[in-house]
Amino acid sequence: MRVLVVEDDTRIASDLAAALENAAFRVETCADGEEAWFLGDTEEYDLVVLDLGLPRLDGLTILKRWRSNGRDMPVLVLTARGAWTERVEGIDAGADDYLPKPFRMEELVARARALVRRSAGRGSAQQEAGDLTLDTNRMTVTLRGVPVSVTALEYRLLSYLMLHRDRIIPPGELLEHLYGDEDAREANALEAVVTRLRRKLGSGVLGTRRGFGYFLEPVEPEG
Amino acid sequence: MTSYSLRLRLLVTGAVSVLIALGVAAVGIALLFSAHVERRALAELSVQLDQVLSGVERDADGLLYLSNTPADPRFERPFGGLYWQISVDGRLLRSRSLWDHEIPLPIDELPDGGEHVHTLEGPDGQSLLTVERSVILPPRLGETGMRAAVAVDQAELQKASRDFASDLLPYLLILAAVLILAMAAQIAIGLRPLGRVEARVGDIRSGRSQRLGEDFPAEVIPLATEVDALLSEREEEISRAGMRAADLAHGFKTPLQAMLGEAGRLRENGQEIHAKAIEETVETMRGHVDRELMRARISLHRETARCDVADVVEAVLRVLRRSVLGGEKSWDVELEPNLAVRAEAADLTEIMGAVAENAARHAASRIQITAREVGGEVGIRIEDDGPGIPPGKLAEMTRRGVRADESSAGSGFGLAIASELAETLGGRLDLRHGTPGLSVRLTLPKA
Fold first, then answer.
1. What is the spatial distance between Cα B411 and Cα B347, in angstroms, rounded to a whole number?
2. d(CA A165, CA B193)
3. Which of A166, B147, B178, B398 has its CA 20 to 30 A from that of B245?
4. Those residues with Cβ within 8 angstroms of residue B117's Cβ, 6 or more apart along the chain or in another chain
5. Which residues contact B6 (CB under 8 A, 6 or more apart)?
6. pTM for the complete prediction?
7. How do strand A26-30 and strand B366-374 relate by DSSP bridges?
């Protein structure tokens, strides 16, 4: 899961990044309004955590510009101004949820996970595909009821495929969401992770379609 | 003097002025009338004197006598009030009315035909207005010098003046009464705009009105304008103070967030006790900051405020249905149409937001919102199907600084602040045990 954290206070930004990374998100941070707008407009994120008070361009304006440009990734708004009229304004501008400061990191992580699930059309924290079950709250994987031990990177890959299990994910998209843009790896690095996972899960779980990408079996019908 | 009423001052000064003016007029008119009476009396005496003089003849013995006495009967009655007297050739001729009295004419020389007016002592203690004339008798009567006088009792003249004054007095009193009444009416009508100013100021105090306005007489407008300018200045000051308080409160939130981050690091290092202490402190500070923010936001014009309940509920639900907390719950909303409360939309949104968010946080699956009008008030009930509040803890929920659920971060002071805000708006927040869950009833004055 690739998350953009837009927060100008460096201490809070690093706390947010640490908490989200612990929850198996791939985090990029940004402290400037103009830059945040550009990133959100051009890159693919599964979630944006957006502080409203930013230098150069305020959060609400960024959000309105993204939405009017057709960018529909889930956006969790953070603000020091907690009035309900401001929340209404934020939601009307296109925010998906609203967290007034100060908040506990557990609350933020819970909301972030729920927003990502919801944007993929999956409400429950327990997600299943065939024999495979992911608990997105506990970050655990079970196969036919038996726990499978996975690394953070492997979990990220599985949960992305799980969220988008109605389609085949191209390797480029998967790489972007696993590693982010800055340190994009070679396609064979991805191949290595897939191979390790296939060893742990056995056949008939992680499918490949040559020239198209990866998917969890069985593929659900579109919609 | 400053503490006496304007009305009393005007009335007293006006009445005193009227009375003084009428008093002066009464004295003046009486004096004029006396002078007039005296002039008339002198003219009459002059005519009587002519008659007396025209009657002087010499009898067969050569003595002068009055052949033809004036007709007025008062000349014939002793001390009758009208007298004549002639001194000639060392003799004294006089009217019968003088009896044995002699008018004591001063010894002075007058030219022929010259006339004097005297006030002299008469018979019976009377004071006489006397006209004296010196004449030289015609050659036929011997060309001797003669002093003749005709006099009238002044008491008669004074009586006429007194009668006139006593006839005049009732009219003057009626005039005074009419003038004072007219003045009272004038004061009442003239001061009426001040009564309107007072009523308008009362409206401003109770919040029904915001400014005095300009629909006053020209003399009151400068006062009204000054008062309005003062009110505007005060409002700006209050609003600036509110903004400063809000900025201060916001300024606290980011450092509080950073402190929570530090608490998280302490926990990672195994210092759970310290982490928890910091988190609790941050929660308490957050409660204070939120409460002060709420107070800073409270509108100045809440008495004239009006907002539509359905609009506010709809806005709050837009937020909660979208959010993670409320998105997966089912919201049943049942509002009477056209409900409006006496509050700014921002204030109602704040209360409804806090209560509905609390319900969403604790509900198992369903939240019900109903609103209806009950006797001049609007009751809005928010019920959830969550675990509810332990028995005996209900009262604590809305008390200052008490958190309902210590384990649930961020939900702490919401209901207590909402309750305080509701009371500021002239309403209240009542908590009851639901079946199951918590039932919150918000009551606000109807707009």
1. 19
2. 80
3. B398
4. B42, B129, B130, B131, B132
5. B191, B194
6. 0.64
7. unpaired
Q: How far is B324 from chain A (nearest CA, A)?
A: 6
A173 closest CA partner among A162, A193, A187: A187
Report d(CA B47, CA B36) in Å as an integer: 17
Interface of A with B in 117-156 (CB under 8 A): 118, 123
CA distance A176 to B99: 154
SS3 B178: helix
> What's B68's DSSP letter?
S
Q: Which domains does chain B have, with CATH numbers?
A: 9-160 (3.30.450), 221-301 (1.10.287), 307-445 (3.30.565.10)
Query: B168-205: per-residue pLDDT in tens?
Result: 999 999 999 999 999 999 998 988 888 888 898 888 88
Of the candidates B412, B146, B442, which has an alpha carbon nearest to the alpha carbon of residue B289?
Answer: B412
Domains defined along chain A, listed by start: 2-119 (3.40.50.2300), 126-216 (1.10.10.10)
ipTM: 0.71
| Token digits of residue A61 | 């304006």
Could you give the 3-state DSSP secondary structure of residue B323?
Answer: coil
List the single residue in B251, B253, B319 with the smallest CB-CB distance to A102: B253
| A15, A87, A107: residue with CB nearest B261 | A15
Contact B410 A104 (CB under 8 A): yes
**In angstroms, what CA-CA distances link B328 with A128, A202, B297, B316, B417?**
19, 35, 31, 15, 26
What distances in angstroms separate CA A210 from CA A98, A156, A171, A194, B176, one per listed residue? 42, 22, 11, 14, 120
Spatial contact of A50 and A59, defined as CB atoms under 8 Å apart: yes
- Token pair recorded at residue A75: 């956006």
How wide is the angle at C-alpha B278 spanned by C-alphas B276 and B279, nearest 5°?
65
Tokens of B443: 């009551």
pLDDT 10s digits, B106-164 = 877 777 777 889 898 888 888 999 999 988 888 888 888 888 999 999 998 999 999 99
Cβ–Cβ under 8 Å, residues A109 and A20: yes
Q: B425: which 2 tokens? A: 């708006």
Rg (CA), chain A: 18
Length of chain A: 223
Q: What amino acid is encoded at A21 in this protein?
A: E
What are the chain A neighbours of B350 within 8 Å (beta carbons)?
83-85
